[in-house]
Amino acid sequence: MVKIAPSILSADFCNLERDIQRVSTADWLHVDVMDGMFVPNISIGVPVVQSIRAHTDMFLDTHLMVEKPGRYVDAFAKAGADLLSIHLEADMPPAIHAALDRMEALGVKKGIVLRPITAAEAVVPYLERGLDLILVMTVEPGFGGQSFLADQLPKISAIRALIDRYCPGCRLEVDGGVNAKTAKDCIAAGADVLVAGSAIYGATDIPAAIAALRG
Ligand SMILES: O=C(CO)[C@H](O)[C@H](O)COP(=O)(O)O
After folding, report:
1. What's the CA gap between 77 and 82, in Å, rounded?
2. Nearest ligand 1 atom, CA 145
3. How many Å apart are CA 139 and CA 28, to the nearest integer?
4. Could you tell me the distance, in angstroms and rounded to a whole number, from the CA of residue 22 to the centre of ligand 1?
5. Fewest CB atoms less than 10 Å from the CB: which of 16, 32, 164, 210?
6. CA distance 184 to 156
7. What is the model's pLDDT at position 215?
8. DSSP-derived secondary structure for 113-124
């Protein structure tokens, strides 16, 4: 069953509670945290996640686009994130493993993320530790509203094969430029969680847009 995760990066931050309610037919809420260092944009941080948690029961799928993400695992877990995903490019492998260990200790679900430049094989050292999610970026992280990078589809297929073999139960998420058309390609390649910002918040009929993404 494919899960749809609207990205609140495309919401109106002055009306965030309203915009979260508007996507209540979706499965997860995707929260993009950007530090202005790992990516050239700054979005939201711990206090906003804490406020969101107080206003919704939706699963908070929290994507940390920050350098040295291990520094923030405790704070986001305490704020109420259900899942934290961290970029493999954001620190050295021992520090990534330590951050994942910490998520496990805190009882928060754990994920890893790949920028478009990072090869599928980079996930291999993490597979047997029982990840909850692998996120493949299909745009350069940092901004919503970009075009889907179709050259990432073979990577999605390759990671699907690795998950099926070594990490069953791990979700495979795609983020960036996902719309009703590209969603079909992502699902065909093996994705089972789709993040979408513009395609959902830019639609006049949001429940219909969410249904269209499900296929
Ligand atoms: O992580 C992101 C950007 O770094 C966003 O979640 C992503 O780009 C979603 O926006 P859109 O669907 O408009 O492409």
Report:
1. 7
2. 13
3. 20
4. 18
5. 164
6. 13
7. 86
8. EE-TTS-GGGGH
Contact 102, 74 (CB under 8 A): yes
Residue 149 contacts residue 177 (beta carbons within 8 Å): yes
Q: Are 171 and 112 in contact (CB under 8 A)?
A: no
Which amino acid, residue 40? P
Whether the Cβ atoms of residue 25 and residue 3 lie closer than 8 Å to each other: no
The region, left, alpha or beta by phi > 0 then psi within -120 to 50, assigned to residue 34 is beta
- Measured from the Cβ of residue 181, the count of other Cβ atoms closer than 10 Å reads 10
Distance 205 CA to ligand 1 centre (A): 19
For residues 65 and 43, what is the distance between their CA atoms, to the nearest angstrom? 10
| Distance in Å, CA 199 to ligand 1 centroid | 10
Q: Which of 55, 59, 51 is nearest to 26 (CA)?
A: 59
CATH number 3.60.160.10 is the correct assignment for the domain at 3-214: no
pLDDT digits (tens, 9 = 90+) for 141-176: 999 999 999 999 999 999 999 999 999 999 999 999
Backbone angles phi, psi at 28, to 5 degrees: -125, 165
Ligand 1 pocket by Cβ (under 6 Å): 7, 9-10, 30, 32, 63, 139, 141-146, 175-178, 195-199
- Note if 175 is an active site residue: yes
HSE value, Cβ hemisphere, 13 Å, CA-based, for 170: 26
Dihedral through CA 132, CA 134, CA 139, CA 143, nearest 10? 30
Nearest to 123 by CA among 132, 115, 114: 114
Does 61 qualify as catalytic in the annotation? no
